[in-house]
Amino acid sequence: MQAGIDAVFDPTLESLLLGFYFTLLLCLSAYGAHRCYLLYLYTRNRARPTPLAQPPDDLPRVTVQLPIYNELYVVERLIDAAANLDYPAERLEIQVLDDSTDETQRIAARAVARWRARGARIQQLRRSGRTGYKAGALAAGLRAASGDAIAIFDADFLPPRDFLRRSIPALRQPGVGMVQARWGHVNQDYSWLTRVQALLLDAHFVLEHGGRHRGGCFFNFNGTAGVWRRQAIEDAGGWQSDTLTEDLDLSYRAQLAGWRFVFLPELVAPAELPVEMTAFKLQQQRWATGSVQTCLKVLPAVLRGGVPLRVKLEAFFHLTANFHYPLLLLLAVLLAPALFARAPGGAPSFLAVDLPLFCAAALSMVNFHAVSQHAVRRDWLSQLKYVPLAMAVGVGLAVNNTVAVLGALRRGRPRFRRTPKYGVVHRRDEWRTKRYRLARAGQPLVELALGLYCTLAALAAMASGLFAAAPVLGLFGCGFLYVGGVSLAQQCRGGLGPAVYSLLHMTRPRTS
């Protein structure tokens, strides 16, 4: 085996390979250190409560905007939840911003008429085209809105009845331009995939938003489950559609204009998590594309701005976070060659350099999720068993999100593709026979090929006595195989599809 390795790796090639490999490790370690910094901000400032003003005597006028596009299965429950909000009727208006092209528009029209007959100030606004997608719909609605405060809920959300009563006092504080609630999950226990998504989103809101808010750094509106001061939107230049994450873009422009944001972790707005792997990947790809577009657009202004250096550095890592996916994909490809290029001295050097970095990354992830779950669940310890799968899914998304990053760097105008919602709440709910199904057969094959490559590399490492490297390679292999395998199985219909789906039944956990 050593003779074969020596034949492949000449000294020059080996030096270039290892130099590039360790550069990748260093860059990825920087993003891992940033995660630790957010945890530090969160824990250091946890005793600092969110200052809330008393409910104002003169409640502001609120416009609730519900942007929808072909939401056949969830639009009625969304309208019902918005119309049931506890707020003075004379100070509340609801806009159903309906760009739908299917029967969603008729379902929405019936729901709007039903609530208007009960006295609600609600209207269905339709445009002649989808110019600007969601950002265009929000901008058009804002021009017709009468509210000084603008609450926004996407189609998959079910805002609690007291949402406005609890968020408006924070918005009325001087200088506050936006209040963001934490996302909840109506179908967290539906499958392994939804459990992993809930874990990732809880960490995002509790620690990323919580750490940034407590530490005085910039953080973003998440596109839904938040309330804006209208003046903040206008001061920042309004909704703009030149990125796929108009929420992130407007958030940074508003904060650069001097507005403060407030995060309310105790205010939870439940939402439906994607149950289809391809839908989840599409959502992640859209977010990754938009965040890179926003990075290219606003990061220069942030770095030139008059904010403290620590805020600039945190914003840099925040806005460039998705660049770690191409690095992770390259690492997956180069890990095995870099390991075997150092044979027979690969084992000691791997133990001394690579393994400590991988272990530090794994422990930081476990700690990150443990702290976030402790903040939101009483049974937080029981959720930690899903952390390895969450790590594997993070690896498995590398192909999907690398495509997104490269697409954003081309500075084109990618088409907005919304995440399908199927109205899935309970474990017995079915979605595979519903409309809006997605099919992207090519990408899962690439992911499966990478999974097989990493798995074979893990077996080769064990055969060569490099036992410490096998779990790392195995994690990469499992991640690509899971993401690619579930994607392909869920896309199959008839024939081999049900058998493959049953074989990959880990997408649906056993009941306890």
Overall 3D form: globular
Total beta-strand segments: 7
Low-confidence stretches: 1-5, 494-507
Mean pLDDT comes to 89
What share of residues is helical? 55-70%
Reported by name, the CATH topology of the largest domain is: Spore Coat Polysaccharide Biosynthesis Protein SpsA, Chain A
Task: Please describe what this structure looks like.
The protein has 512 residues and is of the alpha/beta class. It has two domains: 206 residues; 240 residues, Spore Coat Polysaccharide Biosynthesis Protein SpsA, Chain A (Alpha-Beta Complex). 57% of the residues lie in helices and 10% in strands. The protein has 19 helices and seven strands. The chain has a seven-stranded mixed sheet, sandwiched between helices. Helix 4 links the parallel strand 2 and strand 3. Helix 15 packs across helix 18 and helix 18 packs antiparallel against helix 19. It is globular.
Keywords:
single chain; 512 residues; alpha/beta; Spore Coat Polysaccharide Biosynthesis Protein SpsA, Chain A; 7 strands; disordered N terminus
In short:
57% of the residues lie in helices and 10% in strands.
Secondary structure elements and pairings:
Layout (H helix, E strand, L loop, with lengths): L1 H7 L2 H34 L17 E7 L6 H9 L8 E7 L5 H14 L4 E5 L6 H12 L4 E4 L10 H9 L4 E10 L6 H23 L11 E4 H6 L10 H11 L3 E12 L5 H28 L4 H11 L4 H18 L4 H31 L3 H4 L3 H10 L1 H12 L32 H22 L6 H22 L5 H7 L9
Parallel strand pairs: 1-2, 1-4, 2-3, 5-7
Antiparallel strand pairs: 4-6, 5-6
Helix pairs in contact: 2-7, 2-12, 2-13, 3-4, 7-13, 7-15, 9-10, 10-11, 10-16, 12-16, 12-17, 15-18, 17-18, 18-19
